[in-house]
Design goal:
Chain lengths: 354, 648
């Protein structure tokens, strides 16, 4: 063992190691998803191109043309010709000439194939839609965290009073709501109260000035965001309440009280940050779950986002969109998770590598 | 191992009764159980209970599409003229079936991975947990949607796919529980006598991991039910099994919205909420059994002080002239719903002059900390001051409102808590926490460089180097944290510091340092200190006066010399015998057998009588009163013992 580095030095070193460790894990997970995504669509029976090839109206030449177009004439990977049914092939082929490496090569160029339905590059279609989803998740996430934290803090502070029980029951019910159903109910109610029945903008809006278009989009966002907020605030509230109850029985809260700080000061300066820590972890872990909620919301409100794209792709059997959409969603979630980890390491000075 | 079983059985007569009794306390848990029982009965007996056959629209003619609720159709009809109420009942079957079996698969996989990773450790654990973390990050619903879209949407496929992607949380929780169980004594013993791994896992690990598996199973069922309904709603359900999600899919896609047929939309949704809420509530109930948590915290409102006019009169005890602090006949109860109040502290009086150090001595559980918390009105919410006064510079602290007492706290009287390990906030720097007190109580203090200089000065006073100011408590050693606490207590130049067993958790060298520090600060700054301890050695060294407490009452109160040389109470005498005396190294040390009385079972007579070697009949029937003794030149000497009256 060498000389022990000074305390200040080891602190930043530790943080750097922590970040490197988390970045490594995220990279590993992305690789895993990339491989999974490739084989999933070749192992399972609903293979994208073969689905099309089974059409009896196609001539032999047309089938061959499709096979070449989707690269199905090439082996899946070295030694394996096709995966389902499993047929081994030559191991001598140039790896760059196999389906897997062509897929990886295309990915690095941002190419995700051509949509069956739109006959346009998947990356173009999903690229437009990614931002719509970010818009929806961003607003919904911020609102649900604010509402969840405020009510969670209130419930914990007023523990074992009617405020607490009310918040607890509201939280549990909100947690149990199926997202799509809440969306349907809000849509049902909203459509008779002047809210738009779906989409991102009123048709024909593009000729109007920017501000009109902007408020129009906001107007379309109200119900989807409300659905998102109600569903996720329940969980955030329950976690905040439980975490704050733990924090408020800690010794340092008694110290803060003995220091003569007011209840408000104690909550703000001593309890909130500590109580938020588990919430940050949960928000990170939950991002995958959140995406599940977004698919449902976008389906109900025909919101042109990634989740909506996935929903439409399912009913249109548009596999390139399905494959690309899943990959894009998974990678976004992994990256968001990584960012949450970084945030955590700044919030909690005790963070060290395991 | 048979011995082990006998031990466990002897301790817990019947685990199932115990379980039920604890579970019953959770109202939410009971509500959840009722919800689940009702829906399960509906699901099982759907063919008997439902008024119509769900598969056909038999008995319903044309033009019966989206009929509103009526006597014939309680919940109306759907897009094909089928009875919504019947569909609702059959839908329960599909939802519960999918939920139950998918959860079975998830918990099976998660449990196995968790136990194997936790038990075998090393590389196996590393690989399994890395895999679990990877799967945890991948969004499961999109993955399930993709897989179901690529395969046949049969009920079996759906159960299987939902099942194999819902295990990650279970695996993580089971692993940490296995790790905890693995190091328990009986497992180590079983390994030492050569029991096989399978045997240990089955007979020792599994029973203790089981509770977690059960809670997880309940929660995973609810997730599976939600996932199934989402898949069906997205059009990926089994077309032959009419689930609630499927009903919603049909209603949503086939014009229930535009025809205003709310019943076709509301009924299936209520079903899903019913099941998921029921499961979540049962989860809360189980959680209550497994991790019963304290239901109080430090910010819950305290109980109002009982204003007692008798107490405002003359104290029973002789008082000194113009003391800094005077505690008069203070009594504190702990209120427990449905039980008589526990008399934690009764009729305590003492005074404290400027620059004086009083020692508060007694075993653990004698009400010392309760008394100290009451001085600053920091009692937990069950604690209540039921009598007495705390006079500080002419004000009765028990009569102040929250704002007024906040102005006294730390500014005039500060506290150094027992075990500063958790007394400092872990996510704020020590310097910041010291500065906070100054900002709060000295509004005129400049908030610039001078504030930082003052913090450094305070740290210097307790022997902590300036560069530690920016450090967090976890970067401090135990002794440093305690000294930082003292620096913080000094921040606003208080007149009194209460030190509540400040040296208990520290090693002997550090204890001595802290004591020396407190004593030197007292001399330098003219502080008055109340020093709570169970260590008479500490008292002998630095105290001026000693208050010996037993079972919440005053045993003896006098100058330190009198306590050491002329103590009259048997408890004080026993405490002294338990303490080594350097002048008589050959003397045998003796401990006092037994424990202080429990607050809910106080003796009728003298509280020390059950342990007192000198007790006689009267001691067991009558509580002795405090008596003033004029035996020496000491200003005060008070004790409560029947022997004193006899000897008079």
């Amino acid at each position: 063992m060498g000389v022990r580095p000074p305390a200040q030095w080891s602190k930043s070193l530790n943080r750097w190691l922590y970040i490197r460790n988390k970045a490594g894990r995220s990279f590993f997970t992305i690789l895993f998803v990339v491989v999974l995504n490739f084989f999933l669509f070749r192992v399972l029976p609903g293979d994208p191109a073969r689905q099309g090839i089974r059409d009896p109206r196609l001539t032999q030449e047309a089938i061959e043309a499709i096979r070449v177009r989707f690269g199905l004439d090439k082996p899946v990977i070295n030694c394996i010709q096709t995966v389902n049914p499993l047929r081994f092939g030559s191991c001598e082929v140039n790896p760059l000439e196999t389906q897997f490496f062509i897929y990886v090569k295309n990915l690095t160029r941002g190419e995700l194939g051509i949509s069956f339905y739109y006959n346009r590059p998947v990356s173009d279609i999903l690229g437009e839609r990614l931002w719509n989803t970010v818009l929806l998740i961003g607003g919904g996430q911020i609102l649900s965290i604010i509402v969840g934290v405020v009510f969670g803090v209130m419930a914990a502070w007023k523990a074992r009073t009617s405020v607490d029980y009310g918040a607890l029951i509201t939280g549990l019910v909100a947690w149990s709501l199926p997202t799509f159903w809440l969306g349907i109910i809000l849509l049902f109610w909203g459509s008779s109260h002047g809210f738009p029945i779906g989409g991102k903008a009123t048709p024909g809006m593009s000729s109007y000035p920017f501000m009109t278009q902007f408020t129009d989009v906001l107007w379309h966002l109200v119900l989807p965001t409300l659905t998102y907020t109600i569903v996720f605030m329940g969980e955030y509230m329950l976690i905040m309440r439980s975490s704050l109850l733990d924090v408020l029985s800690e010794d340092y809260i008694l110290t803060a009280k003995a220091k003569g700080l007011s209840t408000f000061q104690i909550l703000k300066d001593h309890a909130l940050k500590n109580g938020m820590l588990p919430l940050v972890t949960i928000i990170a872990i939950n991002l995958g779950f959140t995406v599940g909620g977004v698919i449902q919301i976008e389906s109900v409100f025909s919101w042109p986002g990634l989740g909506g794209a996935l929903f439409e792709a399912v009913s249109r059997r548009d596999f390139p969109i399905l494959q690309g959409g899943f990959l894009l969603i998974a990678i976004s979630v992994i990256l968001a998770n990584f960012i949450a980890d970084l945030l955590y390491s700044y919030l909690d000075p005790r963070v060290q590598i395991e | 191992m048979s011995i082990q079983t006998v031990e466990v059985k002897a301790k817990v007569p019947s685990p199932s009764t115990n379980f039920w009794q604890t579970y019953r306390q959770s109202k939410l848990g009971i509500a959840g159980l009722v919800l689940l029982l009702v829906i399960t009965v509906i699901a099982i007996f759907a063919p008997v209970l439902s008024p119509y056959d769900p598969k056909s629209s038999a008995g319903v003619g044309a033009g019966q599409v989206y009929n509103p609720p009526s006597a014939a159709h309680w919940l109306g009809t759907d897009d094909a003229g089928r009875d919504v109420f019947s569909n609702f009942m059959y839908g329960a079957r599909v939802s519960l079936l999918v939920g139950f079996f998918a959860s079975f698969i998830s918990v099976g996989i998660g449990g196995t991975i968790g136990i194997v990773a936790g038990y075998y450790g090393g590389r196996v654990e590393n690989i399994l947990m890395r895999f679990t973390d990877t799967m945890l990050v991948i969004p499961d619903l999109p993955l399930i949607v993709v897989i179901v879209a690529l395969t046949k949407p049969s009920l079996l496929n759906i159960i299987f796919v939902i099942g194999i992607f819902g295990w990650t949380t279970t695996a993580r929780m089971v692993r940490s529980q296995t790790l905890a169980v693995k190091s328990r004594k009986f497992v180590l013993r079983a390994r030492a006598i050569g029991a096989g791994r399978r045997h240990i896992i089955r007979h020792h690990i599994l029973p203790l991991v089981m509770p977690i598996l059960v809670v997880q199973a309940v929660l995973v069922v609810s997730v599976a039910v939600l996932n199934e309904s989402t898949l069906s709603f997205l059009g990926l359900g089994d077309p032959t099994a009419l689930s609630w999600g499927q009903m919603l899919n049909y209603a949503f896609a086939r014009g229930a919205m535009s025809t205003g047929a709310w019943w076709a939309l509301v009924a299936p949704g209520i079903g899903i909420i019913w099941v998921v809420l029921g499961l979540t509530l049962v989860g809360q109930g189980l959680e209550h059994v497994l991790n019963p948590r304290l239901d109080t915290h430090h910010l819950m409102p305290g109980r109002p002080v009982v204003v007692n006019h008798e107490a405002s009169g003359e104290s029973e005890n002789p008082t000194e002239k113009n003391p800094l602090l005077e505690v008069r006949n203070l009594s504190i109860n702990y209120i427990n719903e449905g039980k008589p109040p526990a008399r934690a502290v009764e009729n305590i009086s003492f005074t404290l002059k400027e620059g004086e150090l009083i020692g508060l001595v007694g075993e653990s559980g004698c009400g010392k900390t309760t008394l100290m918390l009451a001085l600053l009105r920091l009692l937990p919410s069950a604690g209540q001051i039921v009598n007495g006064q705390v006079i500080f510079s002419g004000k009765d602290l028990t009569a102040l409102n929250e704002q007024e007492i906040n102005a006294v706290r730390w500014k005039d009287i500060s506290i150094v808590f027992q075990g500063a390990m958790n007394a400092l906030n872990p996510v704020r720097t020590v310097g910041d926490q010291i500065a906070e007190a100054i900002i709060k109580h000295m509004p005129g203090f400049p908030r610039d460089q001078r504030l930082q200089e003052r913090v450094i000065e305070l740290l210097d006073l307790v022997g902590i180097a300036a560069d530690h100011k920016e450090h967090y408590p976890h970067q401090y050693s135990g002794g440093m944290r305690q000294r930082a606490m003292i620096a913080m207590a000094l921040a606003c130049n208080p007149q009194i510091i209460i030190a509540d067993e400040p040296t208990t958790a520290l090693d002997v060298m550090i204890q001595a340092q802290i004591l020396e520090l407190l004593d030197s600060l007292r001399k330098k700054l003219g502080l008055a200190i109340i020093f709570v301890t169970h260590d008479l050695g500490v008292v002998a060294e630095i105290c001026d006066k000693v208050l010996v407490m037993y079972g919440g009452v005053t045993a003896e109160y006098a100058d330190v010399d009198i306590i050491y040389n002329e103590s009259r109470h048997p408890y004080t005498q026993e405490l002294l015998k338990a303490f080594p005396d350097l002048t008589k190294p050959k003397k045998k040390l003796s401990s006092i057998p037994g424990y202080p009385p429990r607050l809910d079972a106080l003796p009728i007579g003298c509280r020390f009588a059950p342990r007192c070697r000198l007790a006689f009949a009267r001691c067991h029937t009558e509580q002795p009163l405090l008596q003033k003794l004029n035996d020496s030149q000491s200003a005060v000497h008070i004790a409560s013992c029947h022997l004193l009256e006899v000897s008079k």
